[in-house]
Structure to design on (422 residues):
């Protein structure tokens, strides 16, 4: 645990906001780290930020203190609590009892990603909060609820001034994942996710009844949540890069049959998407034209996925890359065959922003206001994917039109965009 000093003194007093995050905000990191960074950028424009970051691995990563000092925050607190087995058991017992008593509240765990407020962490947080008071608090991800509830209990911020950013709509995300597992013949994992979805729905209702605002990534999710919970304000803040990247040169003829997939590869919906394209789409394309290839880039690929991709003809596994622009530069099109998960897909708007035509599932395209045939091509079944890929490869004018219109659409979301429902 480590408390960081103030990084700057404001010349003009501004409202103070408490931002609680389970990850270090990083504009070049994973999707969740990029969203945390978007919060820092958004809040820094109007507020003085006090930042609490909680790592769940039990120890701070190297360089964490210095990374937080480089952020535009007034104060920072880094915590790395080490939960014991009793914390998971207590979480399960509390959930069971509150669910029986009220039929609504309770954490959808015990889950490894939950940021447990252990006794040492509570002492550190209480001392750091002290007599400080905040005009607003942002709880980034529901995993941080124990911490924001403690801040409310200390009187640091009123509950109605707390905004809880779900990012993904947790209950619906788990239902969509359960459907994928059922299709893959894994009913046990599907049932577990369906149970988690029910617990998440209870937690979401408790949040809506307690705090002042809910935020999600996808406008479609915001509209559905606003209809379900009319008493709470619901807003959408789409994911995406911190800024619009420099446009890449147009697709060269030799690259028009080179597809790229960029994403966090230890996230199951991304793994499922890559396996689907590599096993059910790419072989059919290569049977007609062996120039078709797929570049797969991203963090966290498990050995089983790497081995599966190595066995597929025409697949280049790039893994983690320092600069994703180089992947997009080499690609003639960007594919997003994601069939489950939540939120908005950074890979879609990132591909559009780099000036590459995008083919995406209905699920992957949600939240960006895209129009099939105008700003991207939609494909859901394997037959539709093969047809869309063939169409782009054969029509250079279509490829250029989609790339130009897609980048213009991405520019409407970058930098930060927000919509409010309800």
């Amino acid at each position: 645990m480590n408390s960081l000093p103030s990084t700057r003194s404001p010349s003009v007093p501004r409202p103070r906001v408490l931002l609680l995050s389970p990850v270090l905000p990083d504009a070049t990191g994973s999707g969740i780290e990029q969203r945390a960074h978007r919060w820092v950028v958004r809040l820094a424009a109007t507020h003085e930020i006090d930042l609490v970051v909680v790592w769940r691995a039990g120890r701070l990563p190297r360089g964490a203190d210095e990374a937080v000092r480089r952020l535009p925050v007034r104060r920072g607190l880094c915590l790395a609590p080490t939960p014991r087995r009793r914390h998971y058991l207590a979480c399960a017992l509390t959930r069971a009892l509150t669910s029986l008593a009220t039929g609504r509240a309770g954490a959808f765990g015990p889950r490894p990603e939950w940021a447990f407020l252990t006794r040492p962490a509570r002492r550190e947080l209480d001392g750091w909060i002290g007599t400080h008071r905040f005009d607003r608090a942002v709880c980034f991800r529901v995993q941080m609820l124990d911490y924001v509830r403690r801040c409310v209990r200390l009187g640091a911020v009123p509950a109605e001034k707390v905004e809880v950013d779900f990012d993904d709509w947790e209950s619906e995300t788990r239902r969509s994942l359960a459907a994928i597992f059922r299709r893959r013949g894994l009913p046990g994992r599907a049932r577990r996710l369906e149970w988690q979805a029910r617990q998440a729905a209870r937690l979401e209702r408790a949040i809506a009844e307690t705090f002042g605002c809910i935020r999600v990534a996808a406008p479609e999710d915001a509209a559905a949540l606003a209809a379900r919970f009319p008493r709470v304000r619901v807003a959408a803040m789409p994911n995406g890069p911190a800024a619009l990247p420099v446009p890449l040169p147009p697709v060269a003829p030799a690259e028009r049959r080179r597809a790229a997939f960029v994403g966090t590869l230890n996230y199951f919906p991304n793994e499922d998407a890559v396996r689907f394209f590599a096993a059910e789409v790419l072989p059919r394309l290569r049977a007609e034209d062996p120039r078709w290839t797929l570049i797969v880039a991203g963090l966290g690929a498990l050995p089983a996925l790497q081995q599966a991709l190595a066995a597929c003809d025409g697949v280049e596994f790039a893994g983690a890359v320092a600069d994703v622009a180089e992947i997009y530069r080499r690609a003639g099109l960007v594919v997003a065959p994601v069939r489950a998960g939540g939120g908005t897909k950074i890979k879609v708007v990132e591909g559009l922003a780099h000036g590459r035509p995008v083919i995406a599932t209905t699920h992957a395209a949600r939240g960006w206001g895209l129009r099939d045939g105008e700003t991207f091509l939609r494909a859901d079944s394997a037959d539709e994917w093969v047809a869309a890929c063939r169409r782009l490869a054969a029509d250079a004018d279509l490829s250029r039109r989609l790339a130009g219109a897609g980048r213009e659409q991405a520019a409407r979301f970058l930098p930060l965009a927000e919509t409010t429902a309800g």
